[in-house]
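Example record

Each entry pairs one chain with its bound ligand, 2-oxoglutaric acid.
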Amino acid sequence: MSAIPTISLHDFDARRQVILAELMSAATDVGFFTLSNHGIPQDDIAAAFELSRTFFALDDEVKAKTALNGKNAGWEKNTQVRPSTGTADQKESMQLQFARMEGLWPSDTDVEGFQDRASKFMHQVQDVEGKSFGANFWRAGAHADFDILTMLFQRDGEGGLEVCPGRVVVDDYGMGADWLPVEARSDRIVCNIGDQLMRWSDDRLKSTYHRVRLPEGDEPRGPRYSIAFFNQARGGVLIQGPQKKYPAITGAQFIADALARNRMQSAAIAAQARLVDAEKVATEVHFVPAHLKAAA
Ligand SMILES: O=C(O)CCC(=O)C(=O)O
Ligand SMILES: [Fe+2]
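Structure tokens for the complex follow.
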């Protein structure tokens, strides 16, 4: 395989069967694909990136008012440790959800209309569905996503996302040697199958390892923004494939197990690499900031 397939959603109603066949083929062979003609206006995507830029430009103390709450919502910076590196990703993120966001929306004083603007874009997506660092630093270290389907928006030319096809079973940590670049284009939505859907399909649909590398050679050293929409199974839903290859598991238990496995693997690899601070970092990945501890 030499490229990530692109699937066009134009004339959706008339082409439903063709699109379905293309999606099945991409999801079983590669686990990654990009969507073109997806119907979200380019201006709305640009507006979402502008909102993102406005938020991340705030001082860390301001962003920390809505810090990660231990439930996958809120702001974090340099805290995500991947089992493949044992070192914190060099990035910050703002994780938004449709529910359970009490106290986690930036205020209108800090970013005018943040909640309305972000929610509008989340619904639109739902409607479709620096510096020189050492060798062990990644914008995002190699990992597979825990969810059903991830939909990722990138900006033109802000590359570095790479995919490694070839995972065999959902609990297999093996990675191949060949990494395929995913072109950074603002008019495409990058989609990848996550672990929940891999398990739900008895490993037929592939959740693949992917990573974001730092700029190399002559590539621009500026910031890279991306917006990821993680579709997870509802907490109470039972996940089991038609062939019953794996026992049934609830969506919530699947995520809890995946997070626990991630922490164990991160700590193990960090110990192995003798990165003295990394184990400490690994145990603090899902930190609860002091000001939210009382409420948690
Ligand atoms: O930064 C990116 O574009 C990808 C991040 C990613 O793979 C993730 O957060 O799961
Ligand atoms: Fe990911």
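The CA atoms of residues 23 and 258 lie 26 Å apart.
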